[in-house]
Specification:
The protein has 175 residues and is mainly β. The protein is 11% helix and 44% strand. It has a 5-stranded antiparallel β-sheet, with no helix packed on it. The two termini are 35 Å apart. Residues 1-19 have low confidence and may be disordered.
């Protein structure tokens, strides 16, 4: 469980909140650099986690559908041995998608992927709205924090989790 919030009836009195693994904030797709940048707060420290694009080795199928009025094509890829399916709109020339999925010749409007682990869960993301050529672009706040790789951030997360386990452990007196 990444976030627990035991807020009772919307009251801030006596609320308990804990973020395990960090509080994830803005995610920016830097297409020119072929990387994602995400602001994360872990143990009251700000980080900018930089993750390079993945090479999914996509196989584009003949399967077509329509999502939000756009013709999409299905592609199948592989991420560390796990299957991922993505539906992309070739008419929208943006190499991006949900959950940091990339590498197709069009905007990815839907992904279905295996999460792995004991339960073999399936995770689905699908766009519910697209705004092309907005009249007013929303301003992105500058990210703050130390730039760090995804691998180094995972090490910090592991250390943080271990410290938390130790702080909750009271031990057992053997007599």
């Amino acid at each position: 469980i990444e976030t627990i919030n035991n807020d009772q009836n919307g009251s801030s009195m006596g609320a308990f909140s804990i973020n395990i693994g960090g509080e994830y904030k803005a995610l920016i797709n830097e297409t020119s650099k072929k990387e994602f940048r995400q602001e994360v707060v872990l143990d009251k420290q700000n980080f900018i986690v930089v993750t390079p694009y993945k090479d999914y080795e996509w196989k584009i199928t003949d399967i077509e559908d329509t999502i939000l009025g756009h013709k999409v094509k299905k592609a199948i890829g592989n991420d560390k041995g796990k299957q991922i399916a993505a539906w992309f709109a070739p008419d929208i020339k943006v190499d991006a998608g949900p959950n940091q999925v990339n590498g197709l010749p069009g905007l990815i409007l839907k992904t279905v992927s295996e999460t792995g682990g004991k339960f073999g869960s399936i995770m689905t993301y699908e766009a519910d709205k697209i705004t092309l050529n907005p009249k007013k672009m929303s301003k992105t706040k500058p990210m703050k924090g130390e730039e760090i790789t995804q691998e180094d951030f995972k090490k910090l997360q592991d250390e943080s989790r271990q410290k938390m386990r130790e702080s909750f452990s009271i031990g057992v007196d053997k007599k």
